[in-house]
């Protein structure tokens, strides 16, 4: 892939891709991007350079990036946490394209290098339908939190044992369902972040709070979820320690998004509920909130979305008219100006 660029007028000193990646990540960190976004950029860019080799950034052409995207689509066999070896989704390939656009856009602004990513059209992908849980599925998952699978021996009838993590798992499921929190946000909560009297939950801004884009906000829990969290913390030795993680694993460590996903997936398997993952609770919260009379603007704030685009999508699914909601809540109209 190495190419010379005869006739280039770029007077900047030679920069390798690997060195540029390091500078790019530091710049984006200083810009305030979330750790999740930084880690995603780092993984995708390093995968690219480790696969196709390091070179001078001025030598990279649009065809190099196009060939890499085509390779990802047709030949690359990803190694996943769950053991699946299915090809990358169209959405994942588009994320790589977005990363290239950001990386080479930064190089163009900072060092006046040509931007080969500008010449590549965005890979098309079909959005997956928003999946939600039914009331019956949530009930099955909550039951699976409490009891193990039925066991049967030659001398005893079928029986189920209460799981030692029952209180914790029910508290996690109900918190996800009732707050609409993202996985990383829930994993970042401390005991001090939740007020069990009022139900107020503070999602801290910055990397420590796990909020996407580093933007903090306040969400709420209802009586059922608050009771579940109280019951869980009441049996924790550090349940009164404000700095303790709100939810911990059996190894007394805070959850991360991967361990949380494994837990929720196992609960779904035990409950015989298909496609069970943390973000599905966020979808369920949004749709149920709108169908229960919540308005789209409050939902936008609760979810932490910067625009109404995703909320509008939820509203379409919930068959709520955003235009009608705005007409009802319009400040200028209500002030009769």
Sum up the structure in keywords.
337 residues; mainly alpha; DNA polymerase, domain 1; hpI Integrase, Chain A; 2 domains; two-stranded antiparallel ribbon; 14 helices; 2% strand
Can you describe this structure?
By secondary structure, the protein is mostly helical. It folds into two domains: 17-119, DNA polymerase, domain 1; 135-294, Orthogonal Bundle (hpI Integrase, Chain A). Helices cover 50% and strands 2% of the residues. It is built from 14 helices and two strands, in the order αααααααββααααααα. It has helices at residues 17-31, 35-52, 62-74, 90-111, 135-146, 166-179, 183-187, 223-234, 257-271, 278-291, 296-303, 309-317, 322-329, 331-334; strands spanning 200-203, 217-220. Strands 1-2 form a two-stranded antiparallel sheet. The N and C termini lie far apart (64 Å).
Would you kindly provide a brief summary of this structure?
This protein is an all-alpha fold and 337 residues long.
